[in-house]
Amino acid sequence: MSQTKNSACPSGGGRPEWTLYQLAPRLATLESKTIGLIDNRKRHSDVFLDHLQTLMRDK
């Protein structure tokens, strides 16, 4: 299945330019893969990411 995502990049006056990006195919498994979790510094994001890390490690 082919999926695309729209992304707007306003560059000053006028209408923004739109670009379609092809989504990456899903992996069959995360085994032997490295996943980066980024803290966006929102309230309690550290708690959420710690919990997510534990869930993913235990799976």
Q: Bin the strand percentage.
A: 15-25%
Average residue-wise pLDDT: 79
Please estimate the helix content: 10-25%
Shape: flat
Strand order of the largest sheet: 1-2
Question: Can you characterise this structure?
Answer:
With 59 residues, this protein is α+β, with helices and mostly antiparallel strands. It has one domain. Helices cover 24% and strands 20% of the residues. The chain is built from one helix and two strands, in the order ββα. It has one helix at residues 45-58, and strands at residues 4-9, 17-22. Strands 1-2 form a two-stranded antiparallel ribbon. β1 and β2 (17-22) form a beta hairpin. The radius of gyration is 17 Å and the shape is flat. It starts with a strand and ends with a helix. The relative contact order is 0.14.
Tell me the layout of helices and strands.
Blueprint: E1 4-9, E2 17-22, H1 45-58
Antiparallel strand pairs: 1-2
Brief summary:
This protein is α+β, with helices and mostly antiparallel strands and 59 residues long.
Structural descriptors:
59 residues; alpha+beta; two-stranded antiparallel sheet; 1 helix; 20% strand
